[in-house]
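Side project, low priority. Logging it here so it doesn't get lost.
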Amino acid sequence: ASLLVDVGSGVGKLLLARRRGRGEPSASLLGTLPAGKLLFAAALLTQSRGRGVEYVEARAALAERALAAAARDGFLTADEAARVELLHADGTAPGVLQGATHVYMANLCFPDELNVAMVAALAALPTLRCVATLRRLPLEEAWPDDAAACSLAAVEERPVGMSWADNVGVTYYCCEKET
């Protein structure tokens, strides 16, 4: 089963948008939301699981409240809500990304050291298939030779509209080969 992990997931804007709109998400609604909220879309539109990882405690608490309210008010079914896990955690800590098949990181403001640490965390995931980031990862410098994950390669950069800017470059990485 697929597990999409959103590192730096923030406050759960998709859930808040559903609450305000009091309706079903549509492709147009999902297209207007930040890509970092994909974990909610995954649970709403597919049978995949999503895990949001937010380091800032206040933002993580807001996301938890939004998820609980969306489930309570019937905007998410019990099954959809059960497929979304929200963590107040450091994405580089052992076990936080465990089981991830797909990872999204809005890493524009991550310091270089954090991007290097995230590469190490990704390399430890034997289940990893694809990664999407707002800033290129230092794979050549930081990907370990003994990685448990497949060998990642940048396959495409595409402009994506975000709530805060149009045409933000998103780099997509996929496995070159299984290990």
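Brief comment: The first strand starts at residue 3 and ends at 7.
Revisit when time allows.
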